[in-house]
Specification:
Blueprint (H helix, E strand, L loop, with lengths): L1 E5 L12 H20 L4 E4 L9 H12 L5 E3 L11 H8 L5 E4 L4 E5 L16 H13 L5 E5 L23 H5 L6 E5 L6 E5 L2 E5 L8 E7 L3 E8 L3 H11 L20 E4 L5
Parallel strand pairs: 1-2, 2-3, 5-6, 6-7, 7-9
Antiparallel strand pairs: 1-10, 4-5, 8-9, 10-11, 11-12
């Protein structure tokens, strides 16, 4: 079984932008998303900040591209996705419920919403008591089956820069205590920090993907009976990279970060499943 996922996409509005930037955006995102959905996978996931400011035109336009492929797509909202229009409108346009679980014989998948709704001052992650209770229930219910959590924000002090202010779920949210109740293998996948990073803690592997405008890569979790191979598939080329530079240099609420691209150990890893007998 395979799950393909992308980091922060930041599809931007082009209102008040010149024609060159608009053409670069249209060409870049059309080609990148085509490459994403051409990768053979059972699920396709955005780990948040699919849009640059959660505007209605951004959401409708990016979902118009996504809907053409008719693939099983999951979108875990990021803080940028909830800056613009009301959250309920984001859900209606995207048709993406949050805090959901999907199960099959191979894996227990969770999409967890960690973004604050319309908080422009505080872009850290947060979970309510209701969310924590639900997550604990899902963790315990998964027993020793592989569980994969997709969320926008990292768990505090796990991946690169997740101990910096605003760059994680706030440390007073006890999510790590809940994750530690997992019997078997867990993988937690996040974005937000625009830096590749893979770290392990006990039976958990924390995977952080960089931003798409910095690095045109798709990550794949290739799940077999005994392990999970985390792959990084480069779908870029000089043309796409040039288009990304034009976009990233001409939009608000985003900053290009060439240092976000990690070395191979921060992009590829083999997770050995913890087996219980």
């Amino acid at each position: 079984m395979k799950i393909a996922f992308i980091g922060d996409l930041h599809y931007p509005s082009m209102i008040s932008k010149d024609e060159e930037v608009k053409e670069a955006r249209d060409e870049f995102y059309t080609k990148f998303l085509q490459s994403f959905f051409e990768i053979k996978a059972d699920y396709y996931v955005s780990i948040g900040d699919l849009t640059n400011f959660g505007r209605e035109d951004e959401l409708r336009e990016v979902y118009e591209i996504i809907s053409k492929y008719d693939k099983p797509f999951i979108h875990s909202f990021g803080n940028h996705d909830l800056y613009g229009i009301p959250r309920e409108e984001v859900i209606n346009i995207s048709n993406m419920e949050q805090n959901i679980s999907i199960e099959n014989d191979h894996v227990h998948i969770i999409s967890l919403e960690t973004a604050r709704d319309h908080n422009h001052e505080d872009h850290s992650g947060y979970l309510s008591k209701e969310q924590l209770d639900w997550l604990e229930h899902e963790i315990l219910r998964s027993e020793d089956k592989l569980i994969v959590i997709f969320a926008h924000h990292p768990v505090y002090d796990t991946t690169t820069h997740s101990n910096y202010p605003y760059l994680s779920i706030v440390p007073d949210v006890p999510i790590l205590d809940i994750l530690r109740k997992k019997k078997g293998t867990g993988i937690y996948v996040n974005g937000h920090n625009h830096r590749d990073s893979i770290e392990t803690m006990d039976n958990w592997t924390f995977v952080q993907a960089g931003a798409v405008l910095d690095d045109q890569s798709v990550r794949v979790l290739d799940i077999s009976e005994n392990d999970v191979f985390i792959q990084s598939i480069d779908v870029g080329n000089p043309e796409l990279s040039g288009l990304a530079q034009i976009i990233g240099s001409n939009i608000n609420h985003f900053q290009l970060n060439p240092q976000g691209i990690g070395t191979t150990p921060n992009r590829e890893y083999v997770v050995k499943k913890v087996l219980y007998v």
